[in-house]
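Exercise 7. Given the encoded structure of a 90-residue chain, write a plausible sequence.
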């Protein structure tokens, strides 16, 4: 039996909730609850308020979804903290 196809929608993150959840307003004016996909967590892709995202939803539950992609913003990115190298100095 084949896996059910996921529905994809574009939207904008309107609120960052605790525990990795997000409130997303879709382009069709529906507001849903979404979480970040595992690959986004693994690669530490940060999602903040106002980001444009692609949300995958199951046809069985149209109130929840999974954020699978974050579009790159046109504006300048905020400066990130200085990262330490992964090796020890002697």
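Solution.
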């Amino acid at each position: 039996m084949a896996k059910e196809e996921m529905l994809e929608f574009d939207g904008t993150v309107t609120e960052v909730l605790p525990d990795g959840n997000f409130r997303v307003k879709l382009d069709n004016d529906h507001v849903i609850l979404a979480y970040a996909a595992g690959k986004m967590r693994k690669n530490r892709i940060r999602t903040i308020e106002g980001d444009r995202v692609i949300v995958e939803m199951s046809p069985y539950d149209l109130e929840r979804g999974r954020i699978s992609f974050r579009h790159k913003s046109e504006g300048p990115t905020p400066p990130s903290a200085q990262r330490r190298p992964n090796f020890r100095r002697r």
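Remark. The mean pLDDT is 85. Students should compare their own answers with the one above.
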